[in-house]
Amino acid sequence: MKLNFKGIFLGMFALVLVLGIMPNNATAEEPQYGGTLRMITLNPTIPPMSWDNKDWNWKHAHDTGLYLEHLMVGNLQKGPRGTNEYSFQADAWWPAEFRTGELAESWKIEKKRLRVVFKLRKGVYWQEKPGVMKAREFVADDVVYSMQRIVTSPKAIKGYIDSVDRWEAIDKHTVALYLKEWDENWWYHFGMSYYAAILPKEMAEVGATKWQNMGGTGPYMLANYETGSAITSSKNPNYWGRETIDGKSYKLPFTDTIKELLIRDEASRISALRTGQVDMMLGIHHRFKKSLEQTCPQLQWKKMLVTSPATLALRMDTKPFDDIRVRRALNLAVNKQEIVDKYWEGNAELIGYPYPEIWKGYYTPLKDMPPEVKELFSYAPEKAKKLLAEAGYPNGFTFTTMVVSSSPVQMELTQLVKAYLAKVGVTMEISPLEYPQWLSAMTSKTHTPGLMLASGWTNPQAGIRKNFKTKETWNPYMFSDAYLDKEHDRLKSDVNMSDDERREGWKKLNVYVMAKAPAIWLPGQHTYIAWWPWVKNYYGEIAVGCMRPGPILSRIWIDQAQKKKMGF
Q1: Of all helices (H) and strands (E), which one includes residue 330?
Q2: Span 354-371, mean pLDDT?
Q3: 10, CA 20 to 30 Å: which among 32, 43, 454, 479?
Q4: Count of domains in the chain?
Protein backbone atom coordinates (compact mmCIF):
# COMPACT_ATOMS: atom_id res chain seq x y z
CA MET A 1 0.00 0.00 0.00
CA LYS A 2 1.31 3.44 -0.96
CA LEU A 3 0.88 6.07 1.76
CA ASN A 4 -0.19 9.57 0.83
CA PHE A 5 2.26 11.46 3.06
CA LYS A 6 1.22 14.82 1.66
CA GLY A 7 -2.43 14.14 2.51
CA ILE A 8 -1.54 12.95 6.00
CA PHE A 9 0.55 16.07 6.63
CA LEU A 10 -2.16 18.43 5.38
CA GLY A 11 -4.76 16.64 7.49
CA MET A 12 -2.63 16.94 10.61
CA PHE A 13 -1.98 20.62 9.88
CA ALA A 14 -5.73 21.26 9.47
CA LEU A 15 -6.33 19.57 12.84
CA VAL A 16 -3.73 21.85 14.42
CA LEU A 17 -5.58 24.91 13.06
CA VAL A 18 -9.01 23.69 14.18
CA LEU A 19 -7.87 22.89 17.71
CA GLY A 20 -5.90 26.10 18.02
CA ILE A 21 -2.75 24.16 18.91
CA MET A 22 0.34 26.10 17.92
CA PRO A 23 3.88 24.77 17.95
CA ASN A 24 6.41 26.15 20.41
CA ASN A 25 9.39 28.21 19.20
CA ALA A 26 6.92 28.87 16.58
CA THR A 27 8.04 29.99 13.22
CA ALA A 28 10.65 29.64 10.54
CA GLU A 29 9.10 32.56 8.68
CA GLU A 30 10.96 35.82 8.36
CA PRO A 31 9.22 38.65 10.27
CA GLN A 32 7.72 41.39 8.12
CA TYR A 33 7.66 45.06 8.95
CA GLY A 34 4.84 47.44 8.07
CA GLY A 35 1.08 47.33 7.74
CA THR A 36 -1.72 47.72 10.26
CA LEU A 37 -2.99 45.31 12.88
CA ARG A 38 -6.74 45.80 13.37
CA MET A 39 -8.20 44.10 16.40
CA ILE A 40 -10.94 43.85 19.01
CA THR A 41 -9.66 43.46 22.58
CA LEU A 42 -11.31 41.90 25.64
CA ASN A 43 -13.11 45.14 26.58
CA PRO A 44 -14.63 46.42 23.32
CA THR A 45 -17.68 47.99 24.98
CA ILE A 46 -15.79 50.11 27.52
CA PRO A 47 -13.88 53.12 26.15
CA PRO A 48 -10.93 54.61 28.06
CA MET A 49 -12.25 56.19 31.25
CA SER A 50 -9.08 58.18 31.93
CA TRP A 51 -5.65 58.37 30.29
CA ASP A 52 -4.09 59.39 33.61
CA ASN A 53 -3.11 56.66 36.08
CA LYS A 54 -3.49 59.19 38.90
CA ASP A 55 -7.22 58.63 38.43
CA TRP A 56 -6.78 54.96 39.36
CA ASN A 57 -8.78 53.66 36.42
CA TRP A 58 -8.53 49.86 36.24
CA LYS A 59 -8.30 49.94 32.42
CA HIS A 60 -5.30 52.26 32.38
CA ALA A 61 -2.61 49.65 31.65
CA HIS A 62 -4.85 48.11 28.99
CA ASP A 63 -5.51 51.39 27.20
CA THR A 64 -2.02 52.91 27.49
CA GLY A 65 0.11 49.78 27.37
CA LEU A 66 1.42 50.33 23.85
CA TYR A 67 3.24 53.55 24.75
CA LEU A 68 3.52 53.71 28.56
CA GLU A 69 5.72 50.99 30.04
CA HIS A 70 6.15 49.44 33.49
CA LEU A 71 9.10 48.33 35.58
CA MET A 72 8.21 44.67 35.05
CA VAL A 73 6.39 42.52 32.52
CA GLY A 74 5.51 38.88 31.91
CA ASN A 75 8.20 36.80 30.22
CA LEU A 76 6.59 35.77 26.93
CA GLN A 77 9.49 33.45 26.10
CA LYS A 78 8.18 31.15 28.85
CA GLY A 79 4.76 31.08 27.20
CA PRO A 80 3.41 29.14 24.19
CA ARG A 81 5.84 30.87 21.80
CA GLY A 82 8.77 29.55 23.84
CA THR A 83 9.04 26.96 26.61
CA ASN A 84 5.24 26.75 27.04
CA GLU A 85 5.46 26.78 30.83
CA TYR A 86 2.69 29.36 31.23
CA SER A 87 -0.35 30.36 29.15
CA PHE A 88 -0.34 34.12 29.86
CA GLN A 89 -4.13 33.99 29.92
CA ALA A 90 -4.50 35.31 33.49
CA ASP A 91 -5.43 38.94 34.00
CA ALA A 92 -2.95 39.77 36.75
CA TRP A 93 -1.16 36.66 38.02
CA TRP A 94 2.37 35.72 36.99
CA PRO A 95 4.33 33.58 39.45
CA ALA A 96 7.87 34.84 40.11
CA GLU A 97 9.50 32.58 37.53
CA PHE A 98 7.36 34.12 34.76
CA ARG A 99 8.20 37.78 35.45
CA THR A 100 10.94 39.73 33.76
CA GLY A 101 12.10 43.32 33.45
CA GLU A 102 10.68 45.95 31.14
CA LEU A 103 11.96 49.39 32.17
CA ALA A 104 13.81 47.62 34.98
CA GLU A 105 16.62 45.40 33.83
CA SER A 106 16.76 43.55 37.14
CA TRP A 107 15.73 43.86 40.80
CA LYS A 108 16.94 42.71 44.19
CA ILE A 109 14.60 41.84 47.05
CA GLU A 110 15.93 42.79 50.49
CA LYS A 111 13.32 41.64 52.99
CA LYS A 112 15.35 42.49 56.09
CA ARG A 113 15.79 46.06 54.87
CA LEU A 114 12.17 46.16 53.70
CA ARG A 115 13.10 47.31 50.24
CA VAL A 116 13.31 46.31 46.58
CA VAL A 117 16.11 47.80 44.46
CA PHE A 118 15.57 48.13 40.71
CA LYS A 119 18.39 48.48 38.19
CA LEU A 120 16.90 50.45 35.29
CA ARG A 121 17.47 49.81 31.63
CA LYS A 122 19.93 52.21 29.99
CA GLY A 123 19.45 53.72 26.57
CA VAL A 124 15.69 54.16 26.92
CA TYR A 125 14.25 57.48 25.72
CA TRP A 126 10.95 59.26 26.14
CA GLN A 127 9.20 59.91 22.85
CA GLU A 128 9.28 63.46 21.57
CA LYS A 129 5.82 64.98 21.76
CA PRO A 130 5.38 68.45 20.23
CA GLY A 131 3.96 70.86 22.77
CA VAL A 132 4.58 68.38 25.59
CA MET A 133 8.24 67.35 25.75
CA LYS A 134 11.41 66.78 23.79
CA ALA A 135 12.96 63.34 23.59
CA ARG A 136 15.18 62.66 26.59
CA GLU A 137 16.64 59.74 28.52
CA PHE A 138 14.50 57.76 30.96
CA VAL A 139 16.08 57.92 34.45
CA ALA A 140 15.43 56.94 38.07
CA ASP A 141 13.88 60.32 38.92
CA ASP A 142 11.10 59.51 36.45
CA VAL A 143 10.17 56.42 38.45
CA VAL A 144 10.22 58.31 41.76
CA TYR A 145 8.07 61.10 40.35
CA SER A 146 5.56 58.77 38.70
CA MET A 147 5.19 56.46 41.71
CA GLN A 148 4.94 59.31 44.19
CA ARG A 149 2.26 60.85 42.01
CA ILE A 150 0.02 57.77 42.07
CA VAL A 151 0.49 56.89 45.77
CA THR A 152 -0.45 60.44 46.83
CA SER A 153 -3.51 60.55 44.58
CA PRO A 154 -6.81 61.08 46.45
CA LYS A 155 -8.17 58.16 44.42
CA ALA A 156 -5.40 55.75 45.43
CA ILE A 157 -6.63 52.37 46.69
CA LYS A 158 -5.48 52.04 50.27
CA GLY A 159 -4.71 48.34 49.98
CA TYR A 160 -2.18 49.14 47.27
CA ILE A 161 -0.31 51.96 48.95
CA ASP A 162 -0.57 51.43 52.72
CA SER A 163 2.73 49.54 52.94
CA VAL A 164 4.78 52.15 51.02
CA ASP A 165 7.29 54.27 52.91
CA ARG A 166 8.98 56.01 49.97
CA TRP A 167 10.65 55.71 46.59
CA GLU A 168 14.25 56.87 46.26
CA ALA A 169 16.60 57.41 43.31
CA ILE A 170 19.93 55.90 44.38
CA ASP A 171 21.68 56.95 41.17
CA LYS A 172 20.70 57.78 37.61
CA HIS A 173 19.72 54.19 36.79
CA THR A 174 18.93 52.71 40.22
CA VAL A 175 15.75 53.24 42.20
CA ALA A 176 14.51 51.69 45.45
CA LEU A 177 11.09 51.02 46.90
CA TYR A 178 11.11 51.23 50.72
CA LEU A 179 8.26 49.60 52.66
CA LYS A 180 6.85 50.29 56.13
CA GLU A 181 6.17 46.57 56.43
CA TRP A 182 6.81 43.70 54.09
CA ASP A 183 4.28 43.33 51.26
CA GLU A 184 4.53 40.04 49.39
CA ASN A 185 2.55 41.62 46.54
CA TRP A 186 4.99 44.48 45.90
CA TRP A 187 5.61 43.23 42.35
CA TYR A 188 1.90 43.39 41.54
CA HIS A 189 1.27 46.79 43.11
CA PHE A 190 4.27 48.61 41.65
CA GLY A 191 5.99 46.41 39.09
CA MET A 192 3.24 45.56 36.61
CA SER A 193 -0.16 46.64 37.95
CA TYR A 194 -3.22 48.31 36.52
CA TYR A 195 -1.97 51.69 37.75
CA ALA A 196 1.85 51.53 37.81
CA ALA A 197 2.77 52.80 34.33
CA ILE A 198 5.73 55.17 34.39
CA LEU A 199 4.93 58.55 32.87
CA PRO A 200 7.11 61.67 32.61
CA LYS A 201 6.72 64.83 34.65
CA GLU A 202 6.36 66.93 31.50
CA MET A 203 3.27 65.00 30.42
CA ALA A 204 1.64 65.32 33.82
CA GLU A 205 2.31 69.04 33.94
CA VAL A 206 0.55 69.78 30.63
CA GLY A 207 -2.35 67.46 31.41
CA ALA A 208 -2.20 63.66 31.47
CA THR A 209 -5.98 63.38 31.14
CA LYS A 210 -5.85 64.45 27.47
CA TRP A 211 -5.03 61.80 24.92
CA GLN A 212 -3.39 64.42 22.71
CA ASN A 213 -0.65 64.80 25.37
CA MET A 214 0.09 61.11 25.69
CA GLY A 215 3.63 59.86 25.11
CA GLY A 216 5.94 57.32 26.65
CA THR A 217 8.86 54.95 26.17
CA GLY A 218 6.93 52.16 24.47
CA PRO A 219 6.89 50.61 20.99
CA TYR A 220 4.03 52.78 19.76
CA MET A 221 2.82 56.37 20.02
CA LEU A 222 -0.82 57.28 20.56
CA ALA A 223 -1.82 58.81 17.22
CA ASN A 224 -5.57 59.26 17.48
CA TYR A 225 -8.59 58.53 19.61
CA GLU A 226 -11.99 58.52 17.96
CA THR A 227 -14.18 58.88 21.02
CA GLY A 228 -15.88 55.60 21.83
CA SER A 229 -14.91 54.19 18.44
CA ALA A 230 -11.20 53.42 17.98
CA ILE A 231 -7.71 53.91 19.40
CA THR A 232 -4.95 54.23 16.81
CA SER A 233 -1.27 53.88 17.70
CA SER A 234 1.66 54.45 15.35
CA LYS A 235 5.14 52.94 15.41
CA ASN A 236 7.83 54.47 17.63
CA PRO A 237 10.91 54.31 15.36
CA ASN A 238 13.24 54.85 18.31
CA TYR A 239 11.95 52.03 20.52
CA TRP A 240 14.59 50.18 22.53
CA GLY A 241 12.98 46.71 22.54
CA ARG A 242 13.81 43.63 20.48
CA GLU A 243 12.32 40.16 19.90
CA THR A 244 14.27 36.95 19.36
CA ILE A 245 12.77 34.57 16.80
CA ASP A 246 14.52 31.37 15.78
CA GLY A 247 17.68 32.62 17.46
CA LYS A 248 17.74 35.90 15.56
CA SER A 249 17.13 39.31 17.14
CA TYR A 250 14.70 41.78 15.55
CA LYS A 251 13.91 45.39 16.36
CA LEU A 252 10.37 46.02 17.64
CA PRO A 253 7.64 46.77 16.76
CA PHE A 254 6.77 45.00 13.53
CA THR A 255 3.59 46.76 12.38
CA ASP A 256 3.42 50.46 11.54
CA THR A 257 0.00 50.88 13.13
CA ILE A 258 -2.30 49.17 15.61
CA LYS A 259 -5.99 50.05 15.55
CA GLU A 260 -8.13 48.84 18.45
CA LEU A 261 -11.83 49.01 17.57
CA LEU A 262 -14.44 49.74 20.23
CA ILE A 263 -17.67 48.15 19.01
CA ARG A 264 -20.55 47.92 21.46
CA ASP A 265 -22.77 45.58 19.43
CA GLU A 266 -21.74 41.92 19.64
CA ALA A 267 -23.13 40.97 16.22
CA SER A 268 -21.20 43.84 14.64
CA ARG A 269 -17.99 42.63 16.25
CA ILE A 270 -18.50 39.14 14.87
CA SER A 271 -19.27 40.56 11.43
CA ALA A 272 -16.05 42.60 11.52
CA LEU A 273 -14.05 39.43 12.17
CA ARG A 274 -15.95 37.33 9.64
CA THR A 275 -15.38 39.84 6.85
CA GLY A 276 -11.72 40.45 7.67
CA GLN A 277 -12.28 44.03 8.82
CA VAL A 278 -10.32 43.01 11.91
CA ASP A 279 -7.37 40.64 11.94
CA MET A 280 -8.01 39.22 15.39
CA MET A 281 -10.61 39.26 18.13
CA LEU A 282 -10.43 38.36 21.80
CA GLY A 283 -13.43 37.28 23.89
CA ILE A 284 -15.72 35.47 21.42
CA HIS A 285 -18.84 33.94 22.95
CA HIS A 286 -19.07 30.21 22.31
CA ARG A 287 -22.40 30.62 20.50
CA PHE A 288 -20.57 32.29 17.57
CA LYS A 289 -17.69 29.84 17.31
CA LYS A 290 -19.48 27.13 15.32
CA SER A 291 -20.80 29.47 12.63
CA LEU A 292 -17.43 31.20 12.33
CA GLU A 293 -15.70 27.85 11.89
CA GLN A 294 -18.15 26.97 9.12
CA THR A 295 -17.95 30.28 7.24
CA CYS A 296 -14.30 31.07 8.00
CA PRO A 297 -12.48 27.71 8.30
CA GLN A 298 -9.09 29.44 8.02
CA LEU A 299 -9.48 31.17 11.39
CA GLN A 300 -7.13 29.99 14.12
CA TRP A 301 -8.49 29.50 17.64
CA LYS A 302 -7.53 29.44 21.29
CA LYS A 303 -9.83 28.72 24.22
CA MET A 304 -9.51 30.51 27.56
CA LEU A 305 -11.33 30.76 30.87
CA VAL A 306 -12.86 34.22 31.28
CA THR A 307 -10.75 36.25 33.72
CA SER A 308 -13.73 38.28 34.97
CA PRO A 309 -16.66 35.88 35.29
CA ALA A 310 -19.98 37.24 36.50
CA THR A 311 -21.20 36.78 40.03
CA LEU A 312 -24.19 38.35 41.77
CA ALA A 313 -22.89 40.26 44.79
CA LEU A 314 -25.21 40.53 47.80
CA ARG A 315 -24.79 43.46 50.19
CA MET A 316 -24.10 41.84 53.55
CA ASP A 317 -24.73 45.16 55.35
CA THR A 318 -28.31 45.28 54.07
CA LYS A 319 -31.35 43.22 55.06
CA PRO A 320 -32.10 40.49 54.23
CA PHE A 321 -28.56 39.70 53.04
CA ASP A 322 -27.06 40.22 56.48
CA ASP A 323 -28.45 36.74 57.23
CA ILE A 324 -26.31 33.88 55.86
CA ARG A 325 -29.40 31.68 55.65
CA VAL A 326 -30.85 34.02 53.02
CA ARG A 327 -27.59 34.12 51.07
CA ARG A 328 -27.32 30.35 51.13
CA ALA A 329 -30.97 30.02 50.11
CA LEU A 330 -30.46 32.16 47.01
CA ASN A 331 -27.48 30.01 46.00
CA LEU A 332 -29.51 26.83 46.41
CA ALA A 333 -32.32 28.33 44.33
CA VAL A 334 -30.13 28.73 41.24
CA ASN A 335 -29.43 25.64 39.16
CA LYS A 336 -25.79 26.28 38.33
CA GLN A 337 -25.16 22.95 36.62
CA GLU A 338 -28.09 23.68 34.32
CA ILE A 339 -26.53 27.06 33.49
CA VAL A 340 -23.29 25.27 32.59
CA ASP A 341 -25.08 22.64 30.49
CA LYS A 342 -27.77 24.68 28.75
CA TYR A 343 -26.78 28.34 28.73
CA TRP A 344 -23.05 27.80 28.31
CA GLU A 345 -23.54 24.49 26.45
CA GLY A 346 -20.76 22.94 28.51
CA ASN A 347 -18.34 25.84 27.91
CA ALA A 348 -17.98 26.72 31.58
CA GLU A 349 -16.69 25.57 34.96
CA LEU A 350 -18.96 25.42 38.01
CA ILE A 351 -16.42 27.39 40.03
CA GLY A 352 -15.06 30.38 38.16
CA TYR A 353 -14.46 32.82 41.01
CA PRO A 354 -12.85 34.00 43.30
CA TYR A 355 -9.96 31.58 42.53
CA PRO A 356 -9.80 29.94 39.07
CA GLU A 357 -8.63 26.46 38.23
CA ILE A 358 -5.59 27.78 36.36
CA TRP A 359 -4.07 28.89 39.68
CA LYS A 360 -2.31 25.64 40.40
CA GLY A 361 -1.62 25.18 44.11
CA TYR A 362 -4.19 27.80 45.16
CA TYR A 363 -7.39 26.53 43.57
CA THR A 364 -9.56 23.99 45.42
CA PRO A 365 -11.69 21.74 43.15
CA LEU A 366 -15.35 21.37 44.12
CA LYS A 367 -14.83 17.73 45.06
CA ASP A 368 -12.31 18.80 47.70
CA MET A 369 -14.42 21.61 49.15
CA PRO A 370 -16.04 21.27 52.59
CA PRO A 371 -19.75 20.26 52.62
CA GLU A 372 -20.99 23.80 53.30
CA VAL A 373 -19.32 25.01 50.08
CA LYS A 374 -20.27 21.98 47.98
CA GLU A 375 -23.91 22.54 48.87
CA LEU A 376 -23.84 26.08 47.45
CA PHE A 377 -23.31 24.57 43.99
CA SER A 378 -26.21 22.13 44.28
CA TYR A 379 -29.78 22.82 43.20
CA ALA A 380 -32.18 22.48 46.15
CA PRO A 381 -35.17 24.85 45.79
CA GLU A 382 -37.17 23.19 48.57
CA LYS A 383 -34.32 23.62 51.02
CA ALA A 384 -33.98 27.21 49.80
CA LYS A 385 -37.63 27.86 50.73
CA LYS A 386 -37.06 26.29 54.11
CA LEU A 387 -34.03 28.49 54.83
CA LEU A 388 -35.97 31.59 53.76
CA ALA A 389 -38.80 30.67 56.12
CA GLU A 390 -36.34 30.11 58.99
CA ALA A 391 -34.86 33.55 58.32
CA GLY A 392 -38.33 35.15 58.53
CA TYR A 393 -39.20 35.31 54.81
CA PRO A 394 -41.72 32.50 54.22
CA ASN A 395 -43.28 34.48 51.37
CA GLY A 396 -39.98 35.64 49.93
CA PHE A 397 -39.01 39.27 49.37
CA THR A 398 -38.15 41.76 46.64
CA PHE A 399 -34.77 43.32 45.93
CA THR A 400 -33.06 45.24 43.12
CA THR A 401 -29.92 44.31 41.21
CA MET A 402 -27.81 46.69 39.14
CA VAL A 403 -26.35 45.30 35.93
CA VAL A 404 -24.16 46.72 33.14
CA SER A 405 -26.53 47.22 30.21
CA SER A 406 -23.82 46.98 27.53
CA SER A 407 -22.90 43.42 28.57
CA PRO A 408 -25.19 40.86 26.85
CA VAL A 409 -23.83 38.06 29.04
CA GLN A 410 -24.53 39.94 32.28
CA MET A 411 -28.03 40.85 31.12
CA GLU A 412 -28.84 37.28 30.09
CA LEU A 413 -27.44 35.74 33.27
CA THR A 414 -29.36 38.23 35.38
CA GLN A 415 -32.59 37.23 33.66
CA LEU A 416 -31.78 33.56 34.26
CA VAL A 417 -31.12 34.14 37.96
CA LYS A 418 -34.32 36.18 38.22
CA ALA A 419 -36.33 33.26 36.83
CA TYR A 420 -34.76 30.78 39.25
CA LEU A 421 -35.35 33.03 42.28
CA ALA A 422 -38.99 33.54 41.32
CA LYS A 423 -39.53 29.80 41.84
CA VAL A 424 -38.74 30.19 45.56
CA GLY A 425 -40.81 33.36 45.97
CA VAL A 426 -38.00 35.92 45.63
CA THR A 427 -38.56 38.80 43.19
CA MET A 428 -35.47 40.42 41.71
CA GLU A 429 -35.95 43.73 39.94
CA ILE A 430 -33.30 44.59 37.38
CA SER A 431 -31.75 48.04 37.08
CA PRO A 432 -29.66 48.28 33.85
CA LEU A 433 -26.97 50.99 33.88
CA GLU A 434 -24.27 52.23 31.56
CA TYR A 435 -20.85 51.12 32.82
CA PRO A 436 -19.70 54.55 34.16
CA GLN A 437 -22.88 54.88 36.26
CA TRP A 438 -22.60 51.26 37.44
CA LEU A 439 -18.95 51.81 38.42
CA SER A 440 -19.70 55.06 40.23
CA ALA A 441 -22.45 53.44 42.29
CA MET A 442 -20.25 50.46 43.18
CA THR A 443 -17.18 52.45 44.17
CA SER A 444 -19.22 54.99 46.19
CA LYS A 445 -21.14 52.14 47.87
CA THR A 446 -24.49 53.55 46.79
CA HIS A 447 -25.36 50.44 44.80
CA THR A 448 -28.47 48.35 45.28
CA PRO A 449 -28.66 45.24 47.54
CA GLY A 450 -27.80 43.13 44.50
CA LEU A 451 -25.05 43.90 41.98
CA MET A 452 -24.10 41.85 38.95
CA LEU A 453 -20.33 41.99 39.11
CA ALA A 454 -17.59 40.98 36.69
CA SER A 455 -14.38 41.43 38.66
CA GLY A 456 -11.02 40.10 37.58
CA TRP A 457 -9.27 37.32 39.46
CA THR A 458 -6.12 39.46 39.82
CA ASN A 459 -3.93 37.22 42.02
CA PRO A 460 -4.33 35.20 45.24
CA GLN A 461 -3.55 38.04 47.64
CA ALA A 462 -5.20 40.84 45.68
CA GLY A 463 -8.30 38.76 44.95
CA ILE A 464 -8.95 38.43 48.66
CA ARG A 465 -8.00 42.00 49.49
CA LYS A 466 -9.85 43.93 46.84
CA ASN A 467 -13.09 41.96 47.03
CA PHE A 468 -13.44 40.94 50.65
CA LYS A 469 -11.29 43.06 52.94
CA THR A 470 -13.20 45.61 55.01
CA LYS A 471 -13.90 48.91 53.21
CA GLU A 472 -11.99 48.05 50.05
CA THR A 473 -13.09 49.84 46.87
CA TRP A 474 -14.00 46.67 44.93
CA ASN A 475 -15.94 45.10 47.81
CA PRO A 476 -19.59 45.42 46.71
CA TYR A 477 -20.54 42.60 49.09
CA MET A 478 -19.66 44.95 51.97
CA PHE A 479 -17.83 41.93 53.36
CA SER A 480 -16.34 42.78 56.77
CA ASP A 481 -14.80 39.98 58.74
CA ALA A 482 -12.22 40.40 61.52
CA TYR A 483 -10.68 36.95 60.94
CA LEU A 484 -10.27 37.51 57.20
CA ASP A 485 -8.75 40.99 57.70
CA LYS A 486 -6.24 39.69 60.23
CA GLU A 487 -5.34 36.59 58.24
CA HIS A 488 -4.92 38.61 55.06
CA ASP A 489 -2.48 40.97 56.77
CA ARG A 490 -0.51 38.08 58.25
CA LEU A 491 -0.16 36.28 54.91
CA LYS A 492 0.77 39.50 53.16
CA SER A 493 3.41 40.80 55.56
CA ASP A 494 5.04 37.90 57.45
CA VAL A 495 8.64 38.05 56.21
CA ASN A 496 9.56 34.67 57.69
CA MET A 497 6.69 32.69 56.20
CA SER A 498 7.61 29.98 53.68
CA ASP A 499 6.14 30.01 50.19
CA ASP A 500 4.28 26.75 50.87
CA GLU A 501 2.75 28.08 54.08
CA ARG A 502 1.70 31.30 52.38
CA ARG A 503 0.14 29.41 49.48
CA GLU A 504 -1.86 27.17 51.80
CA GLY A 505 -3.00 30.22 53.75
CA TRP A 506 -4.44 31.93 50.67
CA LYS A 507 -6.02 28.69 49.55
CA LYS A 508 -7.83 28.27 52.89
CA LEU A 509 -8.91 31.90 52.98
CA ASN A 510 -10.56 31.53 49.57
CA VAL A 511 -12.57 28.54 50.84
CA TYR A 512 -13.51 30.53 53.95
CA VAL A 513 -14.90 33.34 51.78
CA MET A 514 -16.88 30.96 49.58
CA ALA A 515 -18.52 29.36 52.59
CA LYS A 516 -19.79 32.77 53.73
CA ALA A 517 -21.82 33.02 50.50
CA PRO A 518 -21.43 36.76 49.94
CA ALA A 519 -22.70 36.24 46.40
CA ILE A 520 -24.75 33.96 44.26
CA TRP A 521 -21.73 32.15 42.88
CA LEU A 522 -22.08 31.66 39.13
CA PRO A 523 -20.09 29.47 36.72
CA GLY A 524 -16.99 30.78 34.99
CA GLN A 525 -17.30 30.51 31.24
CA HIS A 526 -14.82 29.69 28.55
CA THR A 527 -14.40 32.18 25.76
CA TYR A 528 -12.47 32.10 22.52
CA ILE A 529 -9.77 34.04 20.73
CA ALA A 530 -9.61 33.95 16.93
CA TRP A 531 -7.15 35.34 14.41
CA TRP A 532 -6.66 35.09 10.67
CA PRO A 533 -3.63 33.12 9.34
CA TRP A 534 -1.91 36.29 8.16
CA VAL A 535 -1.49 37.32 11.81
CA LYS A 536 1.96 36.00 12.68
CA ASN A 537 3.84 35.46 15.94
CA TYR A 538 0.70 35.24 18.07
CA TYR A 539 -0.22 32.22 20.22
CA GLY A 540 -3.30 33.11 22.27
CA GLU A 541 -1.69 35.17 25.05
CA ILE A 542 -3.87 37.96 26.46
CA ALA A 543 -1.79 39.85 29.05
CA VAL A 544 1.74 40.30 30.37
CA GLY A 545 0.73 43.04 32.80
CA CYS A 546 -2.61 43.73 34.48
CA MET A 547 -5.05 43.47 31.55
CA ARG A 548 -2.14 44.72 29.40
CA PRO A 549 -1.75 43.16 25.94
CA GLY A 550 0.53 45.89 24.54
CA PRO A 551 3.86 43.99 24.59
CA ILE A 552 2.14 41.00 22.94
CA LEU A 553 0.69 43.14 20.15
CA SER A 554 4.01 44.81 19.41
CA ARG A 555 5.46 41.38 18.53
CA ILE A 556 2.82 40.55 15.93
CA TRP A 557 3.40 41.07 12.22
CA ILE A 558 1.03 40.91 9.27
CA ASP A 559 1.81 38.73 6.25
CA GLN A 560 0.52 41.17 3.64
CA ALA A 561 0.98 38.78 0.71
CA GLN A 562 -0.99 36.01 2.42
CA LYS A 563 -3.77 38.42 3.38
CA LYS A 564 -4.04 39.62 -0.23
CA LYS A 565 -3.94 36.06 -1.57
CA MET A 566 -6.87 35.16 0.70
CA GLY A 567 -8.87 38.00 -0.82
CA PHE A 568 -8.71 40.53 2.00
Answers
A1: helix 324-333
A2: 95
A3: 32
A4: 2
3-state helix, strand, coil in the chain (%, to 5): 35, 20, 45
Residue type, 528: Y
User: b/e per residue, 157-166, with b = 16+ CB within 10 A?
Assistant: bebbbebbee
List pLDDT tens digits, range 130-153: 999 999 999 999 999 999 999 999
Helix (H) or strand (E) holding 167: strand 164-171
Shared-domain flag, residues 293 and 319 = no
Nearest to 34 by CA among 306, 257, 245: 257
**pLDDT for residue 13 is more than 60:** no
What distance in Å separates the CA atoms of residue 326 and residue 386, rounded to the nearest whole number? 10
Task: Let me know if residue 384 belongs to a domain.
Answer: yes
Q: What is the pTM of this model?
A: 0.90
pLDDT over threshold 80, residue 14: no
Same domain, 281 and 398: no
pLDDT by residue (tens digit) across 267-286? 999 999 999 999 999 999 99
* Structural domain harbouring 365: 310-522
CATH code, domain carrying 109:
3.40.190.10
Q: Which of 454, 443, 509 lies closest to 476 in space, CA to CA?
A: 443
Q: Is 124 within the bounds of a domain? A: yes
Rg (Cα) of the chain, in Å, rounded?
24
**Per-chain mean pLDDT for the chain:** 94
| CATH number, domain containing residue 358 | 3.10.105.10
